[in-house]
Design brief:
By secondary structure, this protein is α/β, with parallel strands linked by helices. It has 2 domains: 193 residues, Rossmann fold, CATH 3.40.50.1100; 102 residues, Rossmann fold. 40% of the residues lie in helices and 17% in strands. It has 13 helices and 10 strands. Bound molecules: pyridoxal-5'-phosphate. This is 1-aminocyclopropane-1-carboxylate deaminase.
């Protein structure tokens, strides 16, 4: 049953972030706490899924199937939503069977898992990929890896309204831009569409710059018919996706004001610090940092 799912409208809180390096530069940051909308359905994932779930409901499906790795935040949130709202889920996993905390959660949350190997997983963009899975699971609607694409981005557009509603409570009359981690660029594209050129969106790339994020953002923005996107992609990957170095670990451990993980949010905030310290933002600048979640994935690094 997908209908009860569509009635859930989580409202992420906007909270001030107090850090010495921000204070020294006179830059103010508020964090949109997507990580706190729910203990299990955490981060940007729900928002990227919601339009796919609506499409699944409209197509008469009972549940959904999607793809991800053995630490996937996307599959984790999807499995948790299935358990919470009572719809069936199946997960197609990259590689060979692995026993990770995330995989154990997926099983406990009732997701049916299939390991595709590496070659099988690489086929996921092929036109015929979903055919056999739709035969096997005719009642499940396919959702692309990570909830990427325009429907995913459209679900993230609501963050702009959430922020505007909470500005006064922070004592802010306005804000000057957004800062967030990018994996596929879908979340960033949602904010670019929501801002419609009014304020810039800065994306800290969690993957190397040659991974096609810029093209993906351009594709989504063009598909939405928007022609004046205002955003900047900055390399926050520190040499590769999931590459974790001592400086990053130390930054996360010493930034006790907010819980971060090393793949996305830790790297994004660390890159913001470098930009603030390089005086990229004038004193008085007010930024919204989107906490995109991912804290469950930390267990792979502990
Ligand atoms: C915790 C976290 N933050 C950020 C992202 C990046 O989101 P997007 O793929 O929409 O750029 C992801 C997933 O890709 C994620 O799991």
């Amino acid at each position: 049953m997908l209908l009860p799912t569509l009635d859930w409208h989580p409202q992420p809180r906007l909270e001030p972030l107090h850090l010495d390096w921000l204070a020294r530069a006179g830059v103010e940051v508020a964090v949109l706490r997507l990580d706190r909308i729910d203990p299990l359905i955490s981060g940007n994932k729900w928002f990227k899924l919601v339009h796919y779930l609506r499409a699944a409901h409209e197509a008469g499906a009972e549940g959904v199937m999607s793809l991800g790795g053995a630490y996937s935040n996307h599959l984790h949130a999807l499995a948790a939503a299935g358990k919470r709202f009572g719809f069936p889920t199946a997960g197609l996993l990259r590689g060979h069977p692995q026993d990770t905390p995330t995989v154990r959660d997926l099983e406990a949350l009732g997701m049916e898992l299939h390991w595709l190997g590496y070659g099988g997983y690489r086929e996921r963009h092929a036109a015929c990929f979903w055919g056999p899975w739709q035969v096997r699971y005719p009642h499940l609607h396919p959702v692309p890896e990570g909830g990427s694409g325009l429907p995913g981005a459209q679900g993230c557009m609501t963050w702009a309204a959430s922020v505007r509603e909470q500005l006064a409570a922070l004592g802010w009359t306005d804000y000057h831009g957004w800062w967030l981690a990018c994996g596929t660029g879908t979340s960033l594209a949602g904010l670019v569409l929501a801002e419609a050129g009014e304020r810039p969106v800065y994306g800290a790339l969690a993957v190397p710059p040659d991974h096609g994020v810029a093209q993906q953002v351009e594709r989504i923005v063009a598909e939405a018919g928007h022609c004046k996107p205002r955003y900047e992609l900055l390399d926050g990957s520190r040499g590769g996706f999931a590459r974790v170095d001592a400086e990053l670990t130390d930054f996360i451990e010493t930034t006790t004001a907010i819980e971060l993980e090393p793949l996305y949010t830790g790297k994004a905030l660390m890159l913001l610090k470098a930009h603030v310290e390089a005086e990229a933002f004038a004193p008085g600048t007010r930024l919204v940092f989107v906490h995109t979640g991912g804290l469950q994935g930390r267990r792979g690094f502990e």
